[in-house]
Specification:
- The protein has one domain (2-159): Beta Barrel (Porin), CATH 2.40.160.
- The protein is 9% helix and 67% strand.
- The chain has one helix and ten strands, in the order αββββββββββ.
- It has one helix at 2-15; strands spanning 27-32, 35-41, 46-57, 65-81, 84-99, 102-119, 123-130, 133-139, 142-148, 151-159.
- It has an eight-stranded antiparallel barrel.
- It is elongated, with a radius of gyration of 18 Å.
- The model is unreliable at 5-9 and 12-19 (pLDDT under 50).
Length: 160
């Protein structure tokens, strides 16, 4: 109950900070959970985004672990009140990595719901909830597929 109340309070406070803005044609660059992310509003209510992240871990005495992540997706955005937008969409993620010398590959399909708070059409802060994810992965000839869920992410973008 406390978390719900806090989320409602933050939404109400943030909704007073924004102003109605037509986002059509705006491009935003920022971060989402450590991943570089670019968003583009094709129309007032439709947008696309893409991102990438790369990491390297070199534990002492072990093989170097590397991972590259690429994502692309589309979303529908509906302005609820000045500067507050409800968003829903799908992100497809491709992960390529090497763990202790063994290569692995993964695809993930993430439908999501979320909201974005945009201040004066320039700065956006958003969150996404991924209730269900379908993934398929392959590592050294072994394939696995399955369902997961209950993920969330935070993002911040500067719009031009």
């Amino acid at each position: 109950m406390k978390k719900t109340l806090l989320a409602v309070m933050i939404s109400v406070i943030c909704s007073g900070l924004g102003f109605a803005e037509d986002m059509a044609g705006k491009i935003g660059a920022g971060l989402r959970d450590g991943t570089f992310d670019v968003r583009y509003f094709v129309t007032k209510g439709l947008g696309v985004h893409a991102g990438t992240a790369m990491s390297t871990l070199n534990p002492e005495g072990a093989a170097t672990n590397r991972e590259s992540e690429y994502l692309a997706g589309g979303f529908y955005s509906k302005e609820l009140t000045d500067g507050v937008m409800f968003q829903t969409g799908l992100t497809v993620t491709r992960i390529i990595g090497k763990d202790s010398g063994v290569k692995y590959y993964e695809w993930a399909y993430n439908p999501y719901l979320g909201a974005e708070f945009v201040y004066k059409g320039r700065f956006g802060f958003d969150f996404k909830v991924i209730p269900l994810q379908y993934y398929t992965s392959r590592m050294k000839g072994a394939n696995s597929t399955g369902w997961a869920g209950g993920y969330g992410s935070l993002g911040a973008h500067l719009y031009f």
